[in-house]
Amino acid sequence: MSNSQAQAALETEASAWWTRPDLHYAQDHLALAGQDLAKLAHAAGIPAFFYNAERVQTKLMQVDTALQSTGLPHRIFYAMKANRFAPLLGFIRSTGLAGIDACSPQELQFALSCGFQESDISYTATSVSNADLDVLARHPNVHINLDSLSSLRRLAARCPGRAIGLRVNPAQGVSYGDNALLNYSGAKTTKFGIYREQWGEALQTVRELGLRLSAIHFHVGIGYQTAQLPLWEQIVQTCAGFIDDALAADHPLERINLGGGLGLPHTEQDVLLDLTVWASIIRRQLGPERFHARILQIAVEPGDFLVKDAGVLVLQANTVERKRETTFVGLDGGFNLAMEPAFYSLPCAPVPCLRREGSTQTVTLAGNINEALDIWARDVALSPIEEGDYIALINAGGYASAMSSNHCMRGQFYERLLFPSAS
């Protein structure tokens, strides 16, 4: 490769789809929030997650601005199952832009320990036990969304007169790449929510038990993008039918919770979700014109959208070796640290922390877990990698550390929240 070709290759990598002002190469060193990731990883000494606090705030502000454009009252609840790193939760609380979406008693208690108030928490779970309900009964100001008639009856026995939400299942789903594994509802019956054929019974049961139905909740899938918004609008239309029934039965609805699922790019082919179009659908389908001047608060529960692209997992290459037709780069961390690439085909694209000169190489990146599926990426073209180099796996800010395991007893990792002003 000539010098001009090498320079062209470097310029192409510098303008890659994932680059942004807070994530880019600075003199061939990959930086997040203005800080050299290789240096940070070397100091950590073990697999390390780094999160850019400013990026999280930017994404929160984007969602907030989009919802403001609807003209409807709104509330954002961060789905903490995406990432429960305590400094991150504390930072989100400090912005004043979001409460917490919790899905277990332990998450509820942890959110409180991070400074959120009961009134800041929306609780939506499934297969809820009596022990779970006993905890919820001790927190009267937490908003609860129930997804079954069974849990409805059992909560009423513990909390007579309580305001609750009901989660509905529209039997339609939408997700990243139309991946059925990421759908929460669809043609196949799922465990989540109350179906339309049960809806009349559910509304009657709420009234008979003396509870107050203040919210309707639905969440249909993970990672939908702009091209899928027409389908998402159809789903919102279907859910509006559930709302019509509740209003017709004179239930005192105050809130519609749209769940989460807002997507972001994972590959060069993906397109950033158009929040303007998303917000216009909300206004059109759920505004006062739709419900005869009735104004309902809109709630959303984004997790991934807020934190995924704010975080990276940095691993060190310990093996660079060709086996038959494949050059393997072995890393010091495996799929147990970030399960989505292996389980859901949601890639964490690899980016060398040091961009070396020379021809790009086609390599397969493998983890250190003794399982065949422990492959981070196959046949990707990267700048030359040497043993000892660090590799950043981008889009590792959500559903990575929070889902990690100690499989093969290789579950150790470090986490750090970065601020652009830090040294």
Q: What does this molecule look like?
A:
The radius of gyration is 23 Å and the shape is elongated. It has twelve helices and 19 strands. The chain has helices spanning 3-14, 37-44, 53-68, 86-95, 105-113, 130-137, 149-158, 196-208, 229-248, 275-286, 304-307, 340-344; strands at 23-26, 29-32, 35-36, 48-52, 74-79, 99-102, 121-124, 143-146, 163-167, 212-217, 255-257, 297-300, 311-323, 326-331, 350-352, 361-366, 375-382, 390-394, 414-418. It is α/β, with parallel strands linked by helices and 423 residues long.
Please name the defining characteristics of this protein.
423 residues, alpha/beta, Lyase, Ornithine Decarboxylase, Chain A, domain 1, TIM Barrel, 2 domains, 8-stranded mixed β-sheet, 8-stranded parallel β-barrel, 12 helices, elongated, disordered N terminus
Helix residue percentage = 25-40%
Radius of gyration: 23 Å
Assigned CATH architecture of the largest domain: Alpha-Beta Barrel
Distance between the termini: 38 Å
How would the global form be characterised?
Answer: elongated
- The count of strands amounts to 19
The first-level CATH class name of the largest domain: Alpha Beta
What structural class do the secondary elements suggest?
Answer: alpha/beta
CATH topology of the largest domain: TIM Barrel
CATH homologous superfamily heading of the largest domain: Alanine racemase
Count of individual domains:
2
Residue-averaged pLDDT: 94
Low-confidence sequence ranges: 1-12
Percent strand: 15-25%
